[in-house]
Amino acid sequence: MIWTTEQRYRRIEEASAEELSELRAKVKGCKWRQTFHIQPETGLLNDPNGFSYFNGEYHLFYQWFPLGPVHGLKYWYHTKSKNLVHWENVGIGIAPTNEYDSHGCYSGSAIEHEGKLYLLYTGNSRDRNWIRHSYQCLAIMDQTGKIEKRKEPVIHHIPNGYTNHFRDPKVWKEGKTFFTVIGAQRENKTGCVVLYSSNDLINWKFEGEIKTNLGAFGYMWECPDYFELQGYGVLIFSPQGIEPYEDHYQNLYQSGYIIGEKLDVERLSLSHAPFQEIDRGFDFYAPQTMVDGNGRRILIGWMGMPEIEYPTDKSGWAHCLTLPRELTISDNKLIQKPVKELELLRKQQYEIQDVIDQEKKMYNGFIGTTFEMICDFENFDAKEFGVEFRVGDCEKTIIKYDSIQKKVILDRTFSGQPVAEEYGTVRKCFLDAAKVKFHLFVDTSSVEIFINDGEEVFTSRIFPQEDSKGIRFFAEGGKVLLHATKWDFE
Ligand code: FRU
Protein backbone atom coordinates (compact mmCIF):
# COMPACT_ATOMS: atom_id res chain seq x y z
CA MET A 1 0.00 0.00 0.00
CA ILE A 2 1.21 3.50 -0.81
CA TRP A 3 0.58 5.99 1.95
CA THR A 4 -0.23 9.53 0.90
CA THR A 5 1.06 12.45 2.96
CA GLU A 6 -2.50 13.06 4.10
CA GLN A 7 -2.83 9.52 5.41
CA ARG A 8 0.52 9.69 7.17
CA TYR A 9 -0.36 12.87 9.01
CA ARG A 10 -3.77 11.82 10.27
CA ARG A 11 -4.35 12.20 13.97
CA ILE A 12 -5.65 9.26 15.96
CA GLU A 13 -8.98 11.06 16.63
CA GLU A 14 -9.56 11.18 12.90
CA ALA A 15 -9.80 7.40 12.76
CA SER A 16 -13.23 5.96 13.47
CA ALA A 17 -13.73 3.41 16.25
CA GLU A 18 -14.42 0.89 13.51
CA GLU A 19 -11.16 1.60 11.68
CA LEU A 20 -9.21 1.23 14.91
CA SER A 21 -10.86 -2.02 15.90
CA GLU A 22 -10.28 -3.44 12.43
CA LEU A 23 -6.64 -2.45 12.66
CA ARG A 24 -6.36 -4.01 16.12
CA ALA A 25 -7.86 -7.24 14.87
CA LYS A 26 -5.45 -7.31 11.94
CA VAL A 27 -2.49 -6.82 14.27
CA LYS A 28 -3.77 -9.45 16.69
CA GLY A 29 -3.93 -12.01 13.91
CA CYS A 30 -0.25 -11.54 13.03
CA LYS A 31 1.83 -14.64 13.63
CA TRP A 32 4.89 -12.53 14.47
CA ARG A 33 3.56 -10.74 17.55
CA GLN A 34 6.21 -10.71 20.26
CA THR A 35 5.69 -12.15 23.74
CA PHE A 36 8.23 -10.42 25.99
CA HIS A 37 9.24 -7.31 24.06
CA ILE A 38 7.62 -3.89 24.05
CA GLN A 39 5.65 -3.57 20.83
CA PRO A 40 2.92 -1.22 19.61
CA GLU A 41 -0.75 -2.26 19.83
CA THR A 42 -1.10 -0.98 16.29
CA GLY A 43 1.03 1.04 13.88
CA LEU A 44 4.71 1.79 14.01
CA LEU A 45 7.08 2.07 16.94
CA ASN A 46 10.53 3.60 16.67
CA ASP A 47 12.96 5.26 19.10
CA PRO A 48 12.78 4.74 22.86
CA ASN A 49 12.17 8.13 24.53
CA GLY A 50 12.10 9.53 28.07
CA PHE A 51 13.57 6.38 29.60
CA SER A 52 13.75 7.11 33.33
CA TYR A 53 13.21 5.94 36.88
CA PHE A 54 10.70 8.14 38.64
CA ASN A 55 8.52 7.73 41.68
CA GLY A 56 9.53 4.08 42.17
CA GLU A 57 8.86 3.01 38.59
CA TYR A 58 10.62 2.77 35.28
CA HIS A 59 9.04 4.94 32.62
CA LEU A 60 9.66 4.37 28.99
CA PHE A 61 8.04 6.13 26.08
CA TYR A 62 8.46 5.41 22.42
CA GLN A 63 7.95 7.10 19.07
CA TRP A 64 4.59 5.96 17.78
CA PHE A 65 2.45 6.37 14.70
CA PRO A 66 -0.81 4.61 15.63
CA LEU A 67 -2.57 4.24 12.28
CA GLY A 68 -0.26 2.02 10.27
CA PRO A 69 3.25 0.65 9.75
CA VAL A 70 4.73 3.89 8.41
CA HIS A 71 6.66 6.89 9.74
CA GLY A 72 3.70 9.25 10.00
CA LEU A 73 2.57 11.71 12.64
CA LYS A 74 4.53 10.74 15.73
CA TYR A 75 3.25 10.55 19.29
CA TRP A 76 5.06 9.56 22.47
CA TYR A 77 3.48 6.35 23.76
CA HIS A 78 3.93 5.74 27.50
CA THR A 79 4.75 2.41 29.19
CA LYS A 80 5.89 1.77 32.73
CA SER A 81 7.29 -1.07 34.80
CA LYS A 82 8.39 -1.94 38.31
CA ASN A 83 10.98 -4.49 37.20
CA LEU A 84 12.08 -3.74 33.60
CA VAL A 85 10.47 -7.03 32.54
CA HIS A 86 6.71 -6.66 32.78
CA TRP A 87 5.56 -3.42 31.17
CA GLU A 88 2.18 -1.81 31.46
CA ASN A 89 0.76 0.14 28.53
CA VAL A 90 -0.26 3.50 29.95
CA GLY A 91 -1.45 5.24 26.78
CA ILE A 92 -0.47 8.29 24.79
CA GLY A 93 2.11 10.33 26.70
CA ILE A 94 2.60 13.33 24.42
CA ALA A 95 0.42 14.11 21.42
CA PRO A 96 1.10 16.61 18.63
CA THR A 97 -1.30 19.47 19.27
CA ASN A 98 0.22 22.81 18.38
CA GLU A 99 2.09 24.72 15.70
CA TYR A 100 5.46 23.64 17.11
CA ASP A 101 4.89 19.88 17.02
CA SER A 102 2.20 19.78 14.32
CA HIS A 103 4.13 17.18 12.33
CA GLY A 104 5.28 15.04 15.18
CA CYS A 105 6.47 14.89 18.76
CA TYR A 106 9.92 13.63 17.94
CA SER A 107 12.45 11.96 20.17
CA GLY A 108 13.69 13.24 23.49
CA SER A 109 14.46 12.33 27.06
CA ALA A 110 13.38 12.73 30.68
CA ILE A 111 14.83 13.98 33.94
CA GLU A 112 13.40 14.41 37.43
CA HIS A 113 13.25 17.94 38.79
CA GLU A 114 11.44 19.23 41.89
CA GLY A 115 9.37 16.07 42.26
CA LYS A 116 8.24 16.01 38.62
CA LEU A 117 9.43 14.31 35.48
CA TYR A 118 10.49 16.77 32.78
CA LEU A 119 10.17 15.45 29.25
CA LEU A 120 12.24 17.32 26.71
CA TYR A 121 11.37 16.50 23.10
CA THR A 122 11.65 17.83 19.58
CA GLY A 123 8.62 19.50 18.09
CA ASN A 124 8.72 18.74 14.39
CA SER A 125 6.68 20.96 12.15
CA ARG A 126 6.35 21.62 8.44
CA ASP A 127 5.25 24.89 6.92
CA ARG A 128 3.10 25.42 3.82
CA ASN A 129 6.07 24.75 1.59
CA TRP A 130 6.82 21.57 3.49
CA ILE A 131 9.95 23.12 4.98
CA ARG A 132 10.89 21.50 8.27
CA HIS A 133 11.15 23.51 11.50
CA SER A 134 12.52 22.02 14.71
CA TYR A 135 11.72 23.25 18.20
CA GLN A 136 12.81 21.78 21.49
CA CYS A 137 9.71 21.48 23.66
CA LEU A 138 8.90 20.54 27.23
CA ALA A 139 6.16 18.48 28.85
CA ILE A 140 5.96 17.86 32.58
CA MET A 141 4.62 14.74 34.27
CA ASP A 142 3.47 14.95 37.89
CA GLN A 143 3.42 12.19 40.54
CA THR A 144 -0.02 11.04 39.40
CA GLY A 145 1.21 10.52 35.85
CA LYS A 146 -0.57 13.51 34.38
CA ILE A 147 1.46 15.08 31.59
CA GLU A 148 1.15 18.73 30.60
CA LYS A 149 2.84 20.38 27.67
CA ARG A 150 4.36 23.84 27.99
CA LYS A 151 2.84 26.15 25.43
CA GLU A 152 6.05 27.63 24.06
CA PRO A 153 9.17 25.73 23.08
CA VAL A 154 12.15 26.02 25.40
CA ILE A 155 14.55 26.26 22.46
CA HIS A 156 12.99 28.26 19.63
CA HIS A 157 15.83 28.80 17.26
CA ILE A 158 18.47 26.81 15.54
CA PRO A 159 21.89 28.42 15.99
CA ASN A 160 23.72 29.74 12.94
CA GLY A 161 25.60 27.15 10.99
CA TYR A 162 23.10 24.29 11.35
CA THR A 163 20.20 23.04 9.22
CA ASN A 164 16.67 22.13 10.36
CA HIS A 165 17.88 18.62 11.11
CA PHE A 166 18.24 19.54 14.75
CA ARG A 167 16.60 17.14 17.19
CA ASP A 168 16.51 14.49 19.92
CA PRO A 169 17.57 16.31 23.12
CA LYS A 170 19.10 14.06 25.79
CA VAL A 171 19.25 15.77 29.15
CA TRP A 172 21.36 15.20 32.27
CA LYS A 173 22.37 17.11 35.38
CA GLU A 174 25.80 17.88 36.69
CA GLY A 175 25.94 19.70 40.01
CA LYS A 176 23.21 22.32 39.74
CA THR A 177 23.33 22.62 35.98
CA PHE A 178 21.27 20.77 33.42
CA PHE A 179 22.82 19.95 30.09
CA THR A 180 21.38 18.61 26.90
CA VAL A 181 23.01 17.26 23.79
CA ILE A 182 21.11 17.64 20.50
CA GLY A 183 21.73 15.80 17.23
CA ALA A 184 22.49 18.22 14.42
CA GLN A 185 23.53 18.71 10.84
CA ARG A 186 26.00 21.42 9.91
CA GLU A 187 25.23 23.64 6.93
CA ASN A 188 27.90 21.73 5.01
CA LYS A 189 25.71 18.62 5.45
CA THR A 190 27.85 16.81 8.00
CA GLY A 191 26.56 15.47 11.30
CA CYS A 192 27.51 16.58 14.80
CA VAL A 193 26.25 17.08 18.34
CA VAL A 194 25.70 20.40 20.09
CA LEU A 195 25.44 21.24 23.78
CA TYR A 196 23.08 23.51 25.72
CA SER A 197 22.97 24.30 29.44
CA SER A 198 20.22 25.45 31.78
CA ASN A 199 19.52 26.09 35.45
CA ASP A 200 15.81 25.34 35.32
CA LEU A 201 15.18 23.20 32.20
CA ILE A 202 13.25 26.14 30.73
CA ASN A 203 15.86 28.73 29.82
CA TRP A 204 18.59 27.16 27.74
CA LYS A 205 21.93 28.59 26.63
CA PHE A 206 23.67 27.39 23.49
CA GLU A 207 27.18 26.33 24.52
CA GLY A 208 28.40 25.21 21.11
CA GLU A 209 29.33 22.13 19.19
CA ILE A 210 31.06 19.21 20.86
CA LYS A 211 34.48 18.82 19.32
CA THR A 212 35.35 15.24 18.48
CA ASN A 213 38.14 14.01 16.25
CA LEU A 214 35.77 12.28 13.84
CA GLY A 215 35.75 15.10 11.27
CA ALA A 216 33.22 14.51 8.51
CA PHE A 217 31.45 11.38 9.69
CA GLY A 218 28.09 11.03 7.98
CA TYR A 219 25.48 13.67 7.11
CA MET A 220 23.38 13.59 10.29
CA TRP A 221 23.82 12.37 13.86
CA GLU A 222 20.53 11.34 15.42
CA CYS A 223 19.68 10.55 19.02
CA PRO A 224 22.85 11.55 20.89
CA ASP A 225 23.27 10.44 24.50
CA TYR A 226 26.11 11.55 26.75
CA PHE A 227 26.88 9.95 30.11
CA GLU A 228 29.75 9.23 32.45
CA LEU A 229 30.54 5.78 33.70
CA GLN A 230 33.49 4.46 35.69
CA GLY A 231 35.27 7.77 35.20
CA TYR A 232 34.91 7.79 31.41
CA GLY A 233 32.82 9.99 29.17
CA VAL A 234 30.68 8.17 26.61
CA LEU A 235 28.87 9.79 23.68
CA ILE A 236 26.40 7.53 21.91
CA PHE A 237 24.80 8.65 18.65
CA SER A 238 23.25 7.26 15.48
CA PRO A 239 25.10 8.58 12.44
CA GLN A 240 23.55 8.44 8.97
CA GLY A 241 25.59 8.28 5.80
CA ILE A 242 28.50 6.05 6.85
CA GLU A 243 29.80 3.75 4.12
CA PRO A 244 30.22 0.02 4.83
CA TYR A 245 33.79 -0.93 5.73
CA GLU A 246 34.89 -4.57 6.09
CA ASP A 247 32.49 -6.11 8.63
CA HIS A 248 31.40 -2.67 9.86
CA TYR A 249 28.51 -0.35 9.07
CA GLN A 250 26.55 -2.94 7.14
CA ASN A 251 23.10 -1.59 7.99
CA LEU A 252 21.43 1.38 6.36
CA TYR A 253 22.17 3.56 9.42
CA GLN A 254 24.48 2.96 12.38
CA SER A 255 24.47 3.37 16.14
CA GLY A 256 27.68 3.62 18.05
CA TYR A 257 29.74 5.51 20.56
CA ILE A 258 32.97 7.23 21.29
CA ILE A 259 34.54 6.76 24.67
CA GLY A 260 37.26 8.73 26.37
CA GLU A 261 37.88 11.41 28.94
CA LYS A 262 34.91 13.15 30.49
CA LEU A 263 33.42 15.93 28.41
CA ASP A 264 35.04 19.26 29.19
CA VAL A 265 31.96 21.49 29.17
CA GLU A 266 34.06 24.67 29.14
CA ARG A 267 36.19 23.75 26.17
CA LEU A 268 33.51 21.48 24.68
CA SER A 269 36.10 18.90 23.85
CA LEU A 270 35.96 15.17 24.08
CA SER A 271 39.18 13.24 23.54
CA HIS A 272 38.25 9.74 22.63
CA ALA A 273 38.98 6.35 21.09
CA PRO A 274 37.63 5.49 17.59
CA PHE A 275 33.89 5.13 16.94
CA GLN A 276 32.57 1.67 17.81
CA GLU A 277 29.25 0.09 16.89
CA ILE A 278 26.98 -0.81 19.79
CA ASP A 279 25.32 -3.75 18.12
CA ARG A 280 26.43 -6.03 15.29
CA GLY A 281 23.03 -7.35 14.19
CA PHE A 282 20.63 -6.21 11.47
CA ASP A 283 18.04 -4.28 13.44
CA PHE A 284 19.24 -1.85 16.02
CA TYR A 285 19.00 1.93 16.07
CA ALA A 286 18.55 5.07 18.19
CA PRO A 287 19.28 3.63 21.65
CA GLN A 288 18.77 5.61 24.84
CA THR A 289 20.23 5.12 28.32
CA MET A 290 19.24 6.04 31.88
CA VAL A 291 20.49 5.52 35.43
CA ASP A 292 18.13 3.67 37.72
CA GLY A 293 17.62 3.72 41.48
CA ASN A 294 20.52 1.29 41.97
CA GLY A 295 22.92 3.41 39.93
CA ARG A 296 22.93 1.07 36.96
CA ARG A 297 23.35 2.55 33.46
CA ILE A 298 20.73 0.80 31.34
CA LEU A 299 20.29 0.95 27.57
CA ILE A 300 17.29 0.17 25.38
CA GLY A 301 17.30 0.45 21.60
CA TRP A 302 14.82 0.40 18.77
CA MET A 303 14.86 -3.06 17.16
CA GLY A 304 14.38 -1.73 13.67
CA MET A 305 15.77 0.43 10.89
CA PRO A 306 14.22 3.45 9.23
CA GLU A 307 13.06 3.32 5.62
CA ILE A 308 12.90 -0.46 5.38
CA GLU A 309 9.86 -2.66 4.84
CA TYR A 310 9.22 -5.40 7.37
CA PRO A 311 7.01 -8.49 6.96
CA THR A 312 4.66 -7.33 9.74
CA ASP A 313 3.72 -4.22 7.73
CA LYS A 314 0.99 -6.25 6.04
CA SER A 315 -0.56 -6.84 9.44
CA GLY A 316 -0.68 -3.15 10.34
CA TRP A 317 2.23 -2.87 12.76
CA ALA A 318 6.02 -2.61 12.80
CA HIS A 319 8.92 -2.94 15.23
CA CYS A 320 9.61 -3.42 18.91
CA LEU A 321 12.15 -2.27 21.48
CA THR A 322 15.17 -4.31 22.59
CA LEU A 323 15.49 -5.85 26.03
CA PRO A 324 17.15 -3.58 28.60
CA ARG A 325 20.92 -4.01 28.87
CA GLU A 326 23.17 -2.99 31.73
CA LEU A 327 26.30 -1.15 30.62
CA THR A 328 29.79 -1.26 32.05
CA ILE A 329 33.15 -0.33 30.56
CA SER A 330 36.16 -2.53 30.10
CA ASP A 331 39.19 -1.84 27.88
CA ASN A 332 37.67 1.29 26.35
CA LYS A 333 34.65 -0.68 25.31
CA LEU A 334 31.01 -0.85 26.39
CA ILE A 335 30.09 -4.21 27.84
CA GLN A 336 26.37 -4.93 27.57
CA LYS A 337 24.57 -7.49 29.69
CA PRO A 338 20.87 -8.31 29.78
CA VAL A 339 19.54 -6.91 33.07
CA LYS A 340 19.36 -9.47 35.86
CA GLU A 341 15.59 -9.02 36.25
CA LEU A 342 15.07 -10.86 32.95
CA GLU A 343 15.62 -14.07 34.93
CA LEU A 344 12.04 -13.53 36.14
CA LEU A 345 10.90 -14.85 32.76
CA ARG A 346 12.58 -18.22 33.23
CA LYS A 347 10.32 -21.25 33.64
CA GLN A 348 11.18 -24.87 32.73
CA GLN A 349 14.96 -25.42 32.53
CA TYR A 350 16.89 -27.90 30.35
CA GLU A 351 20.61 -28.52 30.47
CA ILE A 352 23.08 -30.62 28.51
CA GLN A 353 26.81 -31.15 28.24
CA ASP A 354 28.29 -32.95 25.26
CA VAL A 355 31.11 -33.11 22.75
CA ILE A 356 30.04 -32.21 19.22
CA ASP A 357 32.39 -33.75 16.70
CA GLN A 358 31.85 -32.98 13.01
CA GLU A 359 28.10 -33.42 13.35
CA LYS A 360 24.75 -31.79 14.09
CA LYS A 361 22.97 -32.73 17.32
CA MET A 362 19.56 -32.12 18.87
CA TYR A 363 18.50 -32.67 22.49
CA ASN A 364 15.32 -33.21 24.48
CA GLY A 365 13.66 -29.97 25.48
CA PHE A 366 15.85 -27.95 23.14
CA ILE A 367 13.03 -26.71 20.97
CA GLY A 368 10.80 -23.65 20.90
CA THR A 369 9.88 -20.25 19.57
CA THR A 370 10.38 -18.13 22.69
CA PHE A 371 13.17 -18.96 25.09
CA GLU A 372 16.47 -17.99 26.66
CA MET A 373 19.54 -20.12 26.06
CA ILE A 374 23.16 -19.93 27.15
CA CYS A 375 25.67 -21.96 25.11
CA ASP A 376 29.25 -22.27 26.35
CA PHE A 377 31.74 -23.65 23.86
CA GLU A 378 35.30 -24.61 24.84
CA ASN A 379 38.19 -26.97 24.08
CA PHE A 380 37.61 -26.56 20.37
CA ASP A 381 39.63 -27.60 17.37
CA ALA A 382 36.61 -27.38 15.08
CA LYS A 383 36.90 -24.86 12.25
CA GLU A 384 33.35 -23.77 12.86
CA PHE A 385 30.78 -24.44 15.53
CA GLY A 386 27.56 -22.97 16.77
CA VAL A 387 23.83 -23.34 16.95
CA GLU A 388 20.94 -23.27 14.53
CA PHE A 389 17.60 -22.21 16.00
CA ARG A 390 14.06 -21.64 14.74
CA VAL A 391 14.83 -24.61 12.50
CA GLY A 392 12.04 -25.87 10.22
CA ASP A 393 11.82 -27.76 6.96
CA CYS A 394 13.45 -24.98 4.97
CA GLU A 395 14.30 -22.48 7.68
CA LYS A 396 17.04 -21.84 10.20
CA THR A 397 18.87 -18.95 11.82
CA ILE A 398 22.53 -19.57 12.58
CA ILE A 399 24.92 -18.10 15.11
CA LYS A 400 28.40 -19.55 14.87
CA TYR A 401 32.09 -19.02 15.53
CA ASP A 402 34.63 -19.35 12.75
CA SER A 403 37.84 -20.22 14.59
CA ILE A 404 40.06 -19.72 11.52
CA GLN A 405 38.91 -16.18 10.76
CA LYS A 406 38.16 -15.60 14.46
CA LYS A 407 34.74 -14.24 13.73
CA VAL A 408 31.26 -14.53 15.17
CA ILE A 409 28.76 -14.88 12.34
CA LEU A 410 25.00 -14.38 12.39
CA ASP A 411 23.29 -15.74 9.30
CA ARG A 412 19.65 -14.97 8.60
CA THR A 413 19.72 -16.06 4.95
CA PHE A 414 17.24 -18.86 5.71
CA SER A 415 15.50 -17.31 8.70
CA GLY A 416 12.11 -17.11 6.98
CA GLN A 417 10.36 -14.18 5.36
CA PRO A 418 13.17 -11.97 3.99
CA VAL A 419 13.93 -8.46 5.30
CA ALA A 420 16.17 -5.82 3.70
CA GLU A 421 18.12 -8.43 1.75
CA GLU A 422 19.74 -5.67 -0.26
CA TYR A 423 21.85 -5.00 2.86
CA GLY A 424 23.01 -8.62 2.99
CA THR A 425 21.86 -11.55 5.08
CA VAL A 426 25.01 -12.18 7.14
CA ARG A 427 26.64 -10.08 9.88
CA LYS A 428 30.11 -10.75 11.28
CA CYS A 429 32.41 -9.41 13.92
CA PHE A 430 35.92 -10.19 15.04
CA LEU A 431 36.38 -12.05 18.33
CA ASP A 432 39.62 -13.64 19.46
CA ALA A 433 38.70 -16.03 22.26
CA ALA A 434 39.55 -19.47 23.61
CA LYS A 435 36.01 -19.84 24.98
CA VAL A 436 32.90 -18.69 23.21
CA LYS A 437 29.58 -17.99 24.88
CA PHE A 438 26.33 -17.27 23.06
CA HIS A 439 23.52 -15.99 25.27
CA LEU A 440 20.30 -15.90 23.27
CA PHE A 441 16.91 -14.37 23.90
CA VAL A 442 14.56 -15.63 21.23
CA ASP A 443 11.08 -14.16 20.85
CA THR A 444 8.48 -14.96 18.16
CA SER A 445 10.16 -12.69 15.62
CA SER A 446 13.49 -11.60 17.07
CA VAL A 447 16.76 -12.68 18.55
CA GLU A 448 19.24 -10.87 20.79
CA ILE A 449 22.55 -12.66 21.19
CA PHE A 450 25.05 -11.54 23.82
CA ILE A 451 28.54 -12.79 22.96
CA ASN A 452 31.07 -13.58 25.70
CA ASP A 453 29.19 -11.83 28.48
CA GLY A 454 28.36 -8.71 26.56
CA GLU A 455 31.54 -8.03 24.58
CA GLU A 456 29.39 -7.90 21.47
CA VAL A 457 25.64 -8.12 20.83
CA PHE A 458 23.79 -9.15 17.69
CA THR A 459 20.18 -7.95 17.61
CA SER A 460 17.89 -8.94 14.75
CA ARG A 461 14.34 -9.47 13.71
CA ILE A 462 13.61 -12.83 12.07
CA PHE A 463 10.35 -13.95 10.51
CA PRO A 464 10.13 -17.75 10.54
CA GLN A 465 7.03 -19.93 10.32
CA GLU A 466 5.37 -20.81 13.62
CA ASP A 467 6.39 -24.45 13.33
CA SER A 468 10.09 -23.70 12.83
CA LYS A 469 11.04 -24.60 16.38
CA GLY A 470 14.13 -26.78 16.18
CA ILE A 471 17.47 -26.16 17.87
CA ARG A 472 20.59 -27.91 16.48
CA PHE A 473 24.16 -27.68 17.68
CA PHE A 474 26.95 -28.32 15.22
CA ALA A 475 30.71 -28.50 14.70
CA GLU A 476 32.58 -28.73 11.42
CA GLY A 477 36.18 -29.74 10.80
CA GLY A 478 36.80 -30.83 14.38
CA LYS A 479 35.13 -30.90 17.77
CA VAL A 480 33.95 -28.65 20.54
CA LEU A 481 32.83 -29.17 24.11
CA LEU A 482 29.34 -27.75 24.59
CA HIS A 483 27.47 -26.86 27.74
CA ALA A 484 24.01 -25.46 27.10
CA THR A 485 21.17 -24.33 29.36
CA LYS A 486 17.78 -23.35 28.05
CA TRP A 487 14.75 -21.86 29.75
CA ASP A 488 11.26 -21.81 28.37
CA PHE A 489 9.37 -18.61 29.02
CA GLU A 490 5.89 -18.07 30.43
C1 FRU B 1 15.47 8.38 14.71
C2 FRU B 1 14.55 9.55 14.41
C3 FRU B 1 14.86 10.74 15.29
C4 FRU B 1 13.55 11.48 15.31
C5 FRU B 1 12.55 10.35 15.31
C6 FRU B 1 11.28 10.62 14.58
O1 FRU B 1 14.93 7.18 14.36
O2 FRU B 1 14.62 9.89 13.05
O3 FRU B 1 15.94 11.52 14.85
O4 FRU B 1 13.41 12.29 16.42
O5 FRU B 1 13.20 9.24 14.72
O6 FRU B 1 10.38 9.58 14.77
**CATH evolutionary superfamily of the largest domain:** Glycosyl hydrolase domain, family 43
- Bulk shape: globular
What's the gyration radius in Å?
A: 22 Å
Question: How many angstroms does the end-to-end distance come to?
Answer: 36 Å
The small molecules bound here are: beta-D-fructofuranose
Strand content: over 45%
**Care to count the β-strands?**
32
Task: Describe the overall structure.
The chain is mainly beta and 490 residues long. It has 2 domains: 5-341, Tachylectin-2, Chain A, CATH 2.115.10; 346-488, Jelly Rolls (Sandwich), CATH 2.60.120. The chain has helices at 5-8, 17-28; strands spanning 43-54, 57-65, 75-81, 87-94, 105-113, 116-126, 132-141, 147-149, 162-174, 177-186, 191-198, 204-209, 220-229, 232-240, 256-260, 276-277, 285-291, 297-303, 317-318, 320-321, 325-330, 333-338, 346-361, 371-378, 384-391, 397-402, 407-411, 426-430, 436-443, 446-451, 456-461, 470-489. The model has no long low-confidence stretch (mean pLDDT 98). The structure holds beta-D-fructofuranose. It catalyses: Hydrolysis of terminal non-reducing beta-D-fructofuranoside residues in beta-D-fructofuranosides. Residues 341-480 form the Glycosyl hydrolase family 32 C-terminal domain. Its main location: cytoplasm.
